């Protein structure tokens, strides 16, 4: 097992790299569950899709075999149509240990579903990037073999997004539920959610699991959950079929984060293809098409940032959230949009005095509906900061990336490996032992590469 040593980079205050390294490793070890890592022993006792991707990056630093087991176990639950479900349920857990559980999803209704119980939704496709980085963090023959096995599955994941989910036929994938964005109750979803018919009384038939383990004031409301249930029920009642979504599904949105992740995945797949002796050209071409579609469909030159598009109204959603910053992940993002999005990141809405050494909030700090305690309506999450850190480096701002890195380390130094954090005070919120926080902390502590570019998108493999 390695440690951060002197390569952990500068720290501030009580951010002792060795202590933080031990804390992060202990958190991952405590959440390991035979072939995957649970996000949290209390709030999230099953396997989650993009959690496993981030977690694999952390495992690569301390236990590379677990990184490959993590990704393999997730993709073993991939559907025949290529979708990677956002939850894979542990059959050893009792009914009622999580809501909504496997009996609610009833994935067996769908002919494409695997034998294991899963949800029918997806999450941002950060898995190809995770696989590439896991290999680069710990190159080995085992890792190369694992990449070779995962490569066709990653291709199928991308193909599903590019075909079944291109609802508008414009080159972008649509999400059918806020949970698919990964930022469940973001203010970005308020307008399209308001159009979903539901009543909080719907929840009387269910028992929420999350509010038994976390302060209800920090979680989505019961009305949010009633609408979440209604959207899932609509999708489930059509056996999770994607044909005809435009004519019948109550919630359809093109999300900047999910599509930026899809573009970044193609860049990562190009590098994986090169490693495996395959042709990277088709991946680069698909990445360019996704980037072009993102700018054409989701970039607003007036606000200078990216916004989700509500396909029910065919309008951009005006809320300014951290989602709008995520296209910086794309190395081929044109210079104009890249510059204005970096200005947005440095503004009072997300940064401070053109520095990024404050925690990144998930929503505009200056907005009237900013809620610093409630889930994705304001709190800081390490995964969004980690993604933006990569984007800033990819677009030539190592100074901003370094400040953001310091803020990530300081959050954990002060509060521990929490699920999320108050964006101003740094107080830990949600689960106190959250796996992706620990995993991504390991990655930034171990980061000893020059701050003049990102290493996971379309670049040379580090020596």
Automatic annotation (TrEMBL):
All copies of domain Mannosylglycerate hydrolase MGH1-like glycoside hydrolase, residue ranges: 44-437
Annotated keywords: Glycosidase, Hydrolase
GO molecular function, one term: Glc3Man9GlcNAc2 oligosaccharide glucosidase activity
InterPro entries cross-referenced by the UniProt entry: 6-hairpin_glycosidase_sf (IPR008928), 6hp_glycosidase-like_sf (IPR012341), Glycoside_hydrolase_63 (IPR004888), MGH1-like_GH (IPR054491)
GO biological process, one term: protein N-linked glycosylation
Pfam families: MGH1-like_GH
Similarity remark: Belongs to the glycosyl hydrolase 63 family.
Name of the protein in its database record: Mannosylglycerate hydrolase MGH1-like glycoside hydrolase domain-containing protein
Lineage of the species this protein comes from: Bacteria, Bacillati, Actinomycetota, Actinomycetes, Micromonosporales
């Amino acid at each position: 097992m390695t440690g951060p040593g002197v390569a952990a980079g500068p720290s501030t205050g009580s951010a002792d790299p060795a202590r933080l390294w031990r804390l992060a490793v202990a958190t991952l070890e405590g959440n390991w569950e035979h072939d995957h890592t649970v996000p949290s022993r209390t709030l999230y006792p099953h396997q989650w899709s993009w959690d496993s991707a981030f977690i694999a990056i952390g495992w690569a630093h301390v236990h590379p075999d677990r990184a490959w087991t993590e990704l393999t176990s997730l993709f073993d639950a991939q559907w025949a149509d290529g979708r990677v479900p956002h939850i894979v349920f542990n059959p050893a857990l009792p009914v009622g240990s999580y809501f909504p559980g496997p009996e609610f999803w009833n994935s067996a209704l769908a002919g494409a579903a695997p034998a294991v119980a899963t949800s029918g939704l997806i999450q941002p496709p950060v898995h190809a990037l995770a696989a590439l980085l896991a290999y680069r963090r710990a190159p080995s023959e085992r890792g190369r073999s694992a990449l070779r096995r995962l490569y066709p599955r990653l291709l199928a994941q991308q193909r599903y997004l590019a075909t079944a989910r291109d609802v508008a036929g414009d080159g972008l994938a649509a999400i059918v539920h806020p949970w698919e964005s990964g930022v469940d109750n973001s203010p970005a979803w308020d307008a399209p959610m308001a159009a979903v018919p539901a009543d909080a009384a719907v929840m009387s038939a269910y028992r929420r699991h999350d509010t038994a383990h976390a302060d209800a004031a920090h979680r989505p409301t019961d009305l949010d959950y009633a609408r979440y249930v209604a959207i899932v029920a609509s999708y489930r009642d059509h056996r999770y079929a994607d044909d005809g979504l435009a004519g019948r599904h109550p919630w359809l949105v093109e999300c900047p984060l999910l599509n930026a992740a899809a573009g970044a995945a193609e860049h990562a797949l190009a590098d994986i293809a090169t490693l495996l002796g395959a042709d990277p050209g088709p991946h680069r071409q698909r990445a360019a098409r996704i980037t072009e579609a993102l700018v054409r469909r989701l970039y607003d030159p007036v606000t200078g940032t990216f916004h989700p598009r509500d396909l029910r109204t065919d309008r951009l959603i005006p809320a300014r959230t951290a989602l709008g910053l995520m296209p910086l992940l794309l190395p081929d993002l044109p210079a104009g949009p890249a510059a204005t999005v970096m200005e947005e990141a440095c503004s009072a809405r997300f940064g401070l005095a053109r520095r990024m050494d404050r925690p990144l909030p998930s929503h505009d700090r200056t907005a009237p509906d900013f809620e610093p305690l409630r889930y994705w309506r304001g709190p800081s999450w390490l995964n969004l900061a980690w993604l933006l850190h990569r984007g800033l480096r990819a677009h030539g701002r190592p100074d901003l990336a370094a400040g953001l890195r310091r803020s990530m380390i300081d959050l954990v130094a002060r509060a521990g490996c929490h699920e999320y954090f108050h964006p101003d005070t740094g107080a830990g919120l949600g689960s106190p032992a959250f796996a992706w926080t620990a995993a991504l902390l390991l990655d930034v502590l171990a980061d000893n590469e020059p701050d003049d570019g990102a290493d996971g998108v379309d670049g040379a493999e580090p020596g």
